Amino acid sequence: MSESPPCPACQGTYAYQDRDHWVCPECGHEWSGDGGAEAADDGLVVLDANGNPLADGDTVTVIKDLKVKGSSAVVKVGTKVKNVRLVEGDHNLDCKIDGIGAMKLKSEFVKKA
Questions:
Q1: pTM higher than 0.70 for the full model?
Q2: How many Å is the Cα radius of gyration of the chain?
Q3: How far apart are CA 88 and CA 6, in angstroms?
Q4: Mean of all residue pLDDT scores within the chain
């Protein structure tokens, strides 16, 4: 039996092969098993207002009152937004805000919590 390669994301030793990919059960990272150069999964880099990199699932805090387009609602300063998702485009954070619902935010108006 051949040894499994260490996970490139967390260096975990319990990786297993699933068809033509390797999977790390510790961090959930998947990579191809061909041994060649692979494209980075982190191609999308999103920075908050302070320059800190954001990742899927992060919790952020709103740093400015934001008017909700098409509504009289306002997202107040200090509102915590949990489990953001990074997306391509001008509004690069996809999230749900309690009391308002699903919306997209610009990363320049949030800071990592």
A1: no
A2: 18
A3: 30
A4: 86
Instruction: Identify which of 92, 57, 98 has the alpha carbon closest to the alpha carbon of residue 76.
Output: 98
Percentage, residues of the chain above pLDDT 90: 55
Phi then psi dihedrals of residue 85, to 5 deg? -125, 135
Strand partners, 22: 17, 31
What end-to-end distance do the CA atoms of the chain give, in Å? 45
Q: Do 25 and 56 lie in a common domain?
A: no
Is residue 59 located within the same domain as residue 102?
yes
- Sequence-ordered alpha helix ranges (H) in 7-102: none
Domain that residue 17 falls in: 1-38
Residues 51 and 104 in one domain: yes
Do 16 and 50 belong together in one domain?
Answer: no
Residues 72 and 96 in one domain: yes
